[in-house]
Recover the amino acids of this structure.
């Protein structure tokens, strides 16, 4: 007698519920990461000075970009922050997560 390899209705239902729970958890995790990184970006971009004490408004081009990136990362490594690397990683997480939870990056964070 040949054994039937198809799943029973009970097994299919449990598998479906398990998949839905896993998707829900990943979505909640993604939303939490998105909220956390969005707030970190907002705080970093609101800082008026670079870690050197130079006003951000007086900086231009790459210097301004790098100072803001460092601020998003929690300040320079020398003062105990994550520096440019952490700032970049924060933006990267924030940009990847919306793809995972079907959200767009708010325009106010891109200015």
């Amino acid at each position: 007698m040949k054994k039937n390899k198809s799943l029973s209705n009970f097994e299919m239902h449990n598998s479906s519920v398990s998949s839905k729970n896993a998707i829900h958890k990943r979505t909640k995790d993604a939303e939490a990461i998105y909220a956390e990184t969005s707030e970190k970006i907002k705080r970093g971009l609101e800082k008026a000075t670079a870690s050197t004490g130079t006003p951000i408004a007086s900086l231009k081009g790459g210097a301004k970009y790098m100072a803001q990136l460092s601020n998003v990362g929690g300040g320079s490594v020398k003062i105990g922050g994550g520096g440019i690397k952490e700032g970049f990683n924060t933006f990267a997480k924030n940009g990847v997560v919306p793809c995972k939870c079907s959200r767009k990056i708010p325009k106010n964070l891109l200015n």
Q: What stands out?
A: DSSP finds three helices and no strands in the chain.
